Amino acid sequence: MSEHPILKIDDLHVEFRSGGETVHAVNGMSFQISPGETAAILGESGSGKSVTAAAIMRLLQSPPAFITGGSVHFKGQDVLAMPIAKWREYCGREIAMVFQDALTSLNPVFSVGWQIAELFRAHGVASGRDADARAVDLLDRVGIPDPALRARDYAHQFSGGMRQRVMIAMAIALGPDLLIADEPTTALDVTVQAQIMELLEGLRADSDMAMILITHDLGVVADVADNVAVMYAGRVVEHGPVAEVLARPGHAYTRALLDSVPRTHSKGHKLSPIVGSPPDLARIPKGCAFNPRCRFATDVCRTGAPPRITVAPGRIAECHHVEAVYNDN
Amino acid sequence: MTTADQESLIIRRGSPWWRMLIRDRFALIAALWLLILTLCFLFGPELFGEAATKLNLRARNLPPGSMEHGWLMYLGGDALGRSMLARLIVAARNTLAIALVAVFAAMIVGGALGMIAGYVGRGIGHVIMRFADILQSFPSLLLAVVVLYVLEPSVGNLIIVLAITRLPIYLRVTRAEVLEIRERVFVDAARALGGSRYHILRRHIAPVVAPTLLTILTVDFSIVMLAESSLSFLGIGIQPPEITWGLMVAQGRNYLSQAWWLAFFPGLAIMMATLSGNILSNWLRVVSDPEQRWRLEAPGDSTPRKSAGKNDV
User: Fold this and answer.
1) What's this model's pTM, rounded to 2 decimal places?
2) What is the CATH number assigned to the segment(s) A7-94+176-326?
């Protein structure tokens, strides 16, 4: 990890308060990404991945959401402290986001070409026909066939994969330095998923932007990411280079996650799922949040929060039993 | 790409609006009727102003359907023997002008306030909503009576009063829609790509709210015409010799048992204008909705053509 991360999240806390109950969606999330890097944030549903992304982009509605602690720095600037209008100037130009479902994330009443062109116009980059021409170029760049004609179509006239391409075109339109992709392929079928990931990775490499890939798909992580942060109950429990983390995890949760993946060579064996279900974020277990489901758990896991341990250079894990997990192969 | 593909693309690319209008027969009739009203609006008082005020005591309460007193008397004569037809044509200008200006003013002001209440903030939203509550809980007729007695019963004041009493409907509907739309993902996406508040309201929220407001507007149009007639009936609306359809209904009411046509034709005019507006706004809503437009584009039949738009990866 370089000295100057493009995005640095420090001890971020996000709560949702409703009806007397407080849901702790993000509990001390720390994470950083360097320019040009592809980092994956991996976690199951409800682990706080998307809330973190929304917090970075400042999309959370408050109430019910409250950022109760921590900081987010983008290019050295404190994101959460700056006026929202100033942050919106960064959005689109320097940091952009792709959402999970492209049908709902595109405006239904304007043609896609118009929407992309409007992005140029709203940011004062290009105007009139120039903006239209650039929109068509962009559609071409993300692999939409016959872009000049399709630019006049509406979101509902595209297939799922094509829609996501349009969304990606909008996100990269102004050449951001960091792209956050929040489960960009979850709503798509497998073959299209591969194409979209290829497109994202290709675009990233072309323009040397950094990319945060939020996903629950281990395969995607292994394919494209440089580093991976594994999230559980609103915390990063393990962070490090993908190859190393997946080959030899340092956290019991990562271990369990890897064990649960079906493998070709274990045909005929039963799958080994993680027992239990993710914790209720309004009642997170004491100690290590993963302890009720963990096969390594001992008494210390139920009482004290696990320390942050450097497993290897550039690798950290928050687990009481790092050594046991690390050597358990 | 083959020629067949190109042809299907060209069809899908959309017909011009007038072709879609011709295809929808009801909308076409409605449009023609509104065109006639527009002509009455523009030229009526100049062409028929004299005929509308000319008394002919021999034609008092003349029943409709005879050409005996000339074609202007075909729809009968009123209580003073004036031509009904000419009066209807002349009244079109006042009626339509008052109703149109009032509903548009109500829509624009109410819509803007509703958007602010729905999007900007809780504090100001509360203030605006209580303001709407007050307006709504106050009997609108009483409000109009008070205002018009205090001020001069002029056309301008009449429009202001009518607009204010219709305001809360637009305000509430807009706010409700905005509250729903602002939670949609495409609004989040627009914010994530750097859309300012103003930009999001103008480009992402207003275009989605607009069709709903236009639909209410056409319904409201008739309500306002009737409200104007009741104010005129009370003597605080339009002052004779100015006429509106509403005033004609009010005046004809006294003769309902002897001469039904005095109230019937102006009433019919109000209804037809409203109905045409309704049908046309419905057509407009379909045309302006990208997901519905194919219904009017399909040549002749009503087979869904939506699937024609799906090109797969």
Assistant:
1) 0.75
2) 3.40.50.300
